[in-house]
């Protein structure tokens, strides 16, 4: 329930609209009861042929109740829906504020389709919390208790009957159906997440499935997921209809009982027959306010599961709480990096990706990290960026513990080129502009020239995910973006793996010129051009097996020397 409390906390920011929704909801309920009560009384009174002015007064009162009911219902709908939309807006903003700092590592914990289902579907589900769960019981109780108080002036037995009806229709019947609803809703949400995941995988992998002629099998699996979700929705709908039917049946039984009890009291002389029709009409009308309670279990479980699924993604200490105790990296200078006995395993994995890593990277130095695929080179960069926390050991940036630093300040002070870089649908200019605010066209054209992309125009289009760019063009565009950012620490992960040797040398010349006074870490499979590095770290199977300058490692004739000889034999 703590996740529901988060929703309530965000909801209470709209106290004014919530208060007006409840106020006008109560007025609508009471005027509806008053309208039908007056109708019943007028019918009974008219049979006694009262003076014309009595009929006129009662008719005017009916019209007054009718107008008041319509206005109150309109205002209740207006304020309740305005509150709902504002609450949803607050919820989305709050959720995204917590989600954004987690984005680099969150895709290792959730499949993208399931994450999309939570962000879109579960947020939308919470729109029913205020409208269908929070304020209907408040309106119901106030209207019922007011009506019961009114009926006590005519018959304490009828009032007691209505009170029993309130307990049954307002709490007992919904509670009984809520137990079954919980299981159904949980399964429906899991099926929806599975369907979203399968749809996403089919769309992302369509080309490969088509090439390998496995599309039919994937479509069949998708169809099975869709059938499960549809069947779950059908069960959910049948359960909701049955709940509503039972609820209506109980309300009608109570009304029939009021009629029978009232008739008995009239025959016994304990109730004036003039008021019997009024009390029956009250019993029929007051239960209209209990109608939303029939669907409350479904919406409550839907909201509870949606809140749990949603906030489980971002559970933990918020960025605001971290910022209160965290520090920032110094601006405008290169900083040192250290790893002391660092071990790391990805979430959900027992196998250590890194084990007892010792690194000391001096501010302003140039370091290369080399080794075979899967040796943990890229993971080192991700830990230095604080994408993941280390399982064991200490990581220090500029002498400060990485977990004591505001995550944004690390990324702000770092130029990063990853193996896979995202490019947005738009133009070259728009994709370069994300590097830094206030870039001029000349600065962007110079950056393109430096990475051998001067044949591109700033207005040239880029498709979604850069589908119209080659692998080498993507890497060079990512390097240009990093150069434009102009931070003083560079983390480069295979930045030229898809570039030819001639272009690679020109790129490295530009990179080293741009980073001549900065801290630079280069992850690379290739060993050419590493002579200029101040330090070379050799990794294998998640551990550091050698370190030193190029000449030191060659003279040592160890693992690096063997790798260099193999590279020469392949390319010569």
UniProtKB/TrEMBL annotation:
A UniProt-annotated Pfam family: ABC_membrane
PROSITE patterns in the record: ABC_TM1F, ABC_TRANSPORTER_1, ABC_TRANSPORTER_2
Sequence intervals crossing the membrane: 20-44, 50-68, 129-150, 156-179, 245-266
Gene3D superfamilies: ABC transporter type 1, transmembrane domain (1.20.1560.10), P-loop containing nucleotide triphosphate hydrolases (3.40.50.300)
Any GO molecular function: ABC-type oligopeptide transporter activity
Ranges for domain ABC transmembrane type-1: 19-288
Cell compartments where the protein resides: Cell membrane
Keyword Kinase: no
Keyword Repressor recorded: no
Example of a GO biological process term: cell redox homeostasis
Name recorded for this polypeptide: Thiol reductant ABC exporter subunit CydC
Species assigned in the record: Domibacillus mangrovi
Classification of source organism: Bacteria, Bacillati, Bacillota, Bacilli, Bacillales
